[in-house]
Amino acid sequence: MLLMHPLQKISMVLFAGLATGALAAAQYARPGSDVTSPLHLLKPDYPVAYEAPGRQAILQVVDRVYQYLEAATPYELMDKRTGKAPAAGFKPDTNITIRTGDFRLTSYEWGVTYSAMLRLAEVTGLAKYAEYTNRRVAFLAQQEPLFAQLYQQYPAWRNPLKQVVAPHALDDAGAVCAAMIKAGYAGAEAAKLRPLINRYIDYISNKEFRLPDRTLARNRPLPNTMWLDDLYMSVPALAQMGRLTGDAKYFDDAVFQVLTFSQRMFNPQVGVYMHGWVQAMEPHPEFRWARANGWAIMAMAELLDVLPTSHPGYQQVLAQFKAHARGLAAFQSGQGFWHQLLDKPDSYLETSATAIYAYCFAHGVNKGWLDAQAYGPAAILAWNAVATKVNAQGQVEGTCVGTGMGFDPAFYYYRPVNNYAAHGYGPVLLAAADVLKMCADKKFKLNDSAMMLAE
Fold first, then answer.
1. Are 382 and 398 a contacting pair, CB within 8 Å?
2. Considering the entire predicted model, what is its pTM?
3. For residues 242-270, b (16+ Cβ closer than 10 Å) or e, as one string?
C-alpha cells in the first residue's frame, strides 16, 4: 500500500473541494446570468423609442401633421346656396361664409398652430411652414371688412369671423394676435394685419375684465375667477406688442400678469400651478391640470423670448420659469407623457400637455435658460412619446378636449380625448421644432445605457 505524505493528502482534499465547487457553480451559472453576462447591458423593453431623434425622423412626423392641416383648414369664401366660391360682384349676405374645415381659422388653438408653423420655418429653413400661416392670416385680414359689415347688419347671425371683428374674450384675442405680429416679421403684409392686431390688443389691455389690482380674470364659472389658461391668452400678445411698438407698458403688463398669477396660483412646495382660483373661495382647491400648466410655462417662454434682459421683471420671470420647469419634470411618467392631473398617476396620459412641456424644456435648453443635461433627456423622451400619437393621417391622438374649470377630480379624470381637439396640433409642431434644434445643436447619446448629453 502506497503511503502519502500528509501535505499530499491536504492538496488532494483541496483539489477535490475546488472541483466540487466549480461543478456546483457550473450547475447554477445559467447562460445570460450575471456570472456569464453583464446584465446591466441588457436592453430594456421601453414603450417608446429611447434615443435622440434625427432631423429626418422628426420631419416625417411633422409633415404628416402639415399635410393633414393643409388639407383640413381651407381658407376661401363659400356661397352656401351653391357650395362654391361666390360669383364676382356678389352681394354680401348671410349665405356668404368661409368654407368649413376640421378646425376654425380664428380660434386660440389655431393661434398656437400659426405660431408653431412660423417656428418650424425658422428652425428648419423650410418656407412652406411659414406660408401656411401667412396665407391664412392674410385671408383673415382680407375678409375682415366684409364680415365686419355683415356683423353690423346681422349682429345675431353666427358670423364665422366674429372673433376677429368683435372679440369678447381673451380666447378670441391673445393667441391669434401674437401669431399675427410674428407673421409680420416672417413675410406677411404687416400693414394689412395691423388693424386686426390693434383691435385684439385693445381688447386685452382695455376691455377684458380685471380684478381691482389689474389682474386679468373672468366672471365665470363664478365671480372674480382666475383661469391659469389666461396667461397664454394674454401674455404672448402683450409681449409681442411690446416688441412691435417698443412701448414698455405692454412688457410691464405681461410681467405683472405672470407674477400676480404665480403669487396666487403657484404652489412652490409642489412646483406647479392650480388650474383655477376663485376670490370668494377658501380654501382654493388645487387641481393641477396638465394643459393649463402648459399654457402657463409656454406664456413665460414667449415672454422671455422678447422681454429685454434689462427689464426689472426679467430675472423674476426667468426664476419662475425655472421653478415651474423643475416642478413639472418631477411628474413625467416613465412612458414619457404627463398625466391629465399632474400629481394623479391614475389619471390618463395626455398628449397636448406633454407636447407643450417637450417644447418648453427644449426651447429653454436652446435659449440657455435650462441646463441641457438636466432637461434635454426629458424633452427627448417626451417628444418620442408624442410622436407615437401622430397617426398615419397626421392627426394627433390622445388630446383632452376643451375644458372649463372644476372643483372635483372626476371632472378632470373623465374629460374626453379626441383627434379633433385642436389643442394638440400647435404644441406637437412646436415640440418638433425645438427638439429638432436642440438635437442638432447638442449631441445626446447613451452613457452606461442612459440618455445623456455628450460632453
1. no
2. 0.92
3. bbbeeeeebbebbbbbbbbbbebbbeeee
List residues bridging with 338 in a β-sheet: 350
Estimate the crossing angle of helix 170-185 against helix 190-202, to 10 degrees: 150
| pLDDT, block means (10 residues), the chain with 455 residues | 48 46 48 70 90 97 98 97 93 94 97 98 98 98 96 95 97 98 96 97 98 97 97 98 98 98 98 97 96 98 98 98 98 98 98 98 98 98 98 98 96 98 98 98 94 89
Q: Please report, in angstroms and rounded to a whole number, the separation of the first and last CA atoms in the chain.
A: 73
C-alpha cell at 375: 432637461
Return the sign of the alpha-carbon dihedral for residues 31, 33, 37, 41.
Answer: positive
Closest CA to 296 of 265, 326, 252, 269: 265
Cβ distance 116 to 175 under 8 Å?
no
Per-residue pLDDT, 24: 46
Q: What are the grid coordinates assigned to 157, written together? A: 347671425
User: 92: how many CB neighbours lie within 10 A of its CB?
Assistant: 14
What is the pLDDT, as a whole number, of residue 30?
Answer: 58
- Looking at the DSSP bridge assignments, the partners of residue 450 are 447
Instruction: Return d(Cα 437, Cα 431) in angstroms, integer.
Output: 10
Per-residue confidence (pLDDT) for residue 26, from 0 to 100: 44
451 beta partners: 446
Q: What is the pLDDT of residue 7?
A: 47
What whole-number distance in Å separates Cα of residue 455 and Cα of residue 442? 9
CA gap 172, 177 in Å, rounded = 9
Task: Report the alpha-carbon distance of residue 363 to residue 46 in Å, rounded.
Answer: 25
